Amino acid sequence: xxxxxxxxxxxxxxxxxxxxxxxxxxxxxxxxxxxxxxxxxxxxxxxxxxxxxxxxxxxxxxxxxxxxxxxxxxxxxxxxxxxxxxxxxxxxxxxxxxxxxxxxxxxxxxxxxxxxxxxxxxxxxxxxxxxxxxxxxxxxxxxxxxxxxxxxxxxxxxxxxxxxxxxxxxxxxxxxxxxxxxxxxxxxxxxxxxxxxxxxxxxxxxxxxxxxxxxxxxxxxxxxxxxxxxxxxxxxxxxxxxxxxxxxxxxxxxxxxxxxxxxxxxxxxxxxxxxxxxxxxxxxxxxxxxxxxxxxxxxxxxxxxxxxxxxxxxxxxxxxxxxxxxxxxxxxxxxxxxxxxxxxxxxxxxxxxxxxxxxxxxxxxxxxxxxxxxxxxxxxxxxxxxxxxxxxxxxxxxxxxxxxxxxxxxxxxxxxxxxxxxxxxxxxxxxxxxxxxxxxxxxxxxxxxx
Length: 450
Hints:
By secondary structure, the chain is mostly helical.
């Protein structure tokens, strides 16, 4: 594949990644435009809906690309993302917007597996460099989303300016659809690869029901129990389908290593904390501290830069520290969170910038080390599927954190204001970081004994 083709497919992955951060920047405008009360848990569904659609279909997306051809699947996913982005930008109310966000996350889940598959199959001598570029896009997408979103909101102005953060995906999608057939070669479809449609539907519905259960207690009250029961029924049905299907979405062998199961379970607090932080930070900076969208984006830039730079140090750190690299990253993150807990109530802008820099740096180290550690524990023959399971667990954890910590944030905002709400989220995240540190130190001790 030529360099222009690699850049094109990386661009296709970049936009869905960036959209999470754009939505965070848009939340205050969405709240005001639709007349939602400050701290309402409904607002968290704008983030949770996208992550639910995204996280529940990542594994399915990889299987579909194998069977039908990766370029064809990528083109269909880009078209679906384009249409759903238009629905988000034109949504007449909050519930249509939430539905459109779920619909937007679904095709995004089919994009990323195709990018990795196309790079692996066609990048040739540029493969290692392309994978490195792909890995760095989390930091770049955060930087562009936070600052670029703020610039766009400031340029357009007005109550409905947030709509353009979604509508701008349309011309980008049209360009991608026009160039993909010209610049990217199709991979041969594998018609022998079976897809468990019933299992895929049950998994997606289970994830969606679980996240709605986590998001809705303050809205539905006791009726949330009904959603919880529906989640349990769907989850049990999926597990039964897994055992019966000859084309199970997640083969049992992928979790055969107890160290992998332990690492996966202890990874979840890290991403849950990140989800709550991602939800609370833009609202606190804009509505709690009174910053304009552009100023808020610039203030968060150190976090994105720290993440981007530190992610490139992970291989060397892992050579020296092994699993303890995760503890190092989580410790740096915790130091940044502590600084933020002091800086937000006093509006100490330099300390806020320093805290965000440390948070981003720690997250970049911890995330890179976690991914490398866990994928090393997956059997080689299941490496591709292992990546899909890992990404799914991450997205569901982020969405759960946005839902649960978002609800806590909203309750505190309504009683004590945005600053107190942000400090509460930060303190919870410090506790979660301590759990991650303890787990990684324990894991390192187990490795030394083996």
